[in-house]
């Protein structure tokens, strides 16, 4: 997908839906103290995905910012993974999903590379920096859940 396909229609984008990684979600749900929560406008969908609404006011060339955060916790607080304020960012011909870096305030962390299949769906693979977010439990290039651009006109009923 090129910039024109996505950015020319920014007013028609409702948000970004992403389930992160199904095996990880299932693991959290099996924990006695496992907890998943959304904040700042993000919503849990029946599909297991989290919907992060488009943050139109923060949009910039070659990036689409989304609002909200998704938090996974377990092991008496020893495990905490937060996906906050995701952005789709384009560098050259490649797309990345970045988040607010939980280890370096004010910085961004690229967690997955995105390869778009069409104007709505992208396959994701964990980046080297993304492995840190998951405490090294997944290797670089592990396939994560696909992302989905939620279009207002196509997905209003979902």
TrEMBL record:
Source organism per UniProt: Enteractinococcus coprophilus
Pfam families per UniProt: HtaA
Listed InterPro entries: Htaa
Name of this chain's protein: Htaa protein
Domain Htaa span(s) in chain numbering: 16-148
């Amino acid at each position: 997908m090129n910039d024109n396909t996505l950015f020319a229609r920014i007013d028609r984008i409702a948000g970004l839906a992403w389930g992160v990684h199904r095996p990880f979600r299932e693991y959290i749900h099996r924990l006695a103290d496992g907890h998943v929560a959304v904040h700042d406008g993000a919503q849990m969908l029946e599909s297991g995905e989290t919907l992060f609404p488009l943050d139109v006011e923060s949009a910039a060339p070659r990036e689409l910012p989304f609002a909200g955060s998704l938090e996974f916790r377990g092991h008496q607080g020893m495990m905490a993974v937060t996906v906050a304020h995701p952005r789709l960012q384009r560098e050259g011909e490649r797309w990345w999903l970045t988040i607010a870096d939980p280890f370096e305030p004010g910085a961004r962390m690229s967690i997955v590379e995105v390869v778009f299949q069409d104007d709505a769906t992208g396959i994701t693979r964990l980046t080297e920096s993304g492995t840190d977010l998951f405490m090294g439990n997944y290797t670089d290039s592990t396939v994560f859940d696909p992302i989905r651009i939620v279009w207002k006109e196509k997905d209003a009923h979902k």
